[in-house]
Design a protein that fits this description.
By secondary structure, this protein is an all-alpha fold. It contains 15 helices and no strands.
Length: 395
Amino acid sequence: MFLSILGQQGGIIGGVGQAMAITFPLTEAGEIKNKILSEKITTTIKLNEAKAKKDFDQLKKLEEKLASIPQLPSSRDDLIWSILIASFTIILLINGKFSLIEKFCIILVSSFTLITILNLFALQSHGSWAIKMDEIVHGLSFSFPEAINGSKPLLTAIATFGIIGVGASEILVYPYWCIEKGYGAFTGKRNDSSEWLYRAKGWIKVMKWDAWGSMIVYTFCTIAFYLLGASILGRSGLLPAGGEMIQTLSSMYRPVFGEWAQMIFLIGAVAVLFSTFFVALAGQSRMAVDALMTSGILPQENKLRTKLIKIFGVIFPTLCVMCYAFFPKPVFLILVSGSMQALMLPIVGFAVLFFRYKLSDSRLGYSKVWDIFLWVSFVSFIVIGAYQLYSKIFD
């Protein structure tokens, strides 16, 4: 799973590179590629609108125009930008200074998410793109679309389940950010005093607010992005893949924002993807070092730990860029990581149960209802993981 996560981050840094290559192309081939791809996407969207309006004259013209658009020229501007961004990330990881970028990214990501939600609601006034209630009902039904061109909807859904919201890697890394943010720092070592119990319950309450808040935010945002993609990309037949991923995804904003759509999406994409890339690698560096130390391979020394975290802060971004350089398919890399994380979820679930029944302080209090939910989640993790493993071995 660890290697697949590095591959996933390779796909993410590739996405940042694509966004920067669109905004600031470095070569003439890159500029031409951007123009051709933009024309292709714009024509495809207009084609879909003409179909919805049953404007057959316009439809014929657009089909002819789409057929006359030349092939995309070869350009690796995205790879050059990926290398530059990875180098900048290495500097940040070595110095450990991310507070300014963190605040900046929070503002951009929040604004981008708000714009996405407004875009979704504004889309309902466009007859060609409006989402109908019967489509939502059909989407919530217990069925999968037909397999097209060798696609496997169920496996894609499982891979998506493993990575959307809080995936296995985020669950493993989350305790590090609790420590970094000072969660429970003043609780102290566990003892039998009522003062410790009071402090522990206080911090558990903070953690509950954190968990509920994040669940509401990522669930609502995921639904918004899904509906937007289904409305624009699904109906237009646009597939965000390879070097066209970011440019294609920006089409989701064009019916509402027009020419401004691309710039809005690019700013949001850079903020979201770069912050994800940095935070993930910072967490993976710490987790790799701790895994080596707790397994007894390396001695548990603070100075050594700090040094190794910085060394991995150089190695991991380099490996991620290499993944994208030799396999420039971001969507595939991300889905593979999602599959591996789905396999990891049962192990995470078992660890949670072990902590719940073997290492937790009984004075903190428990709810039978939530224990039932915990076991239901664990069983669902096992079923999903088992099916994913079965499909990989026998398919």
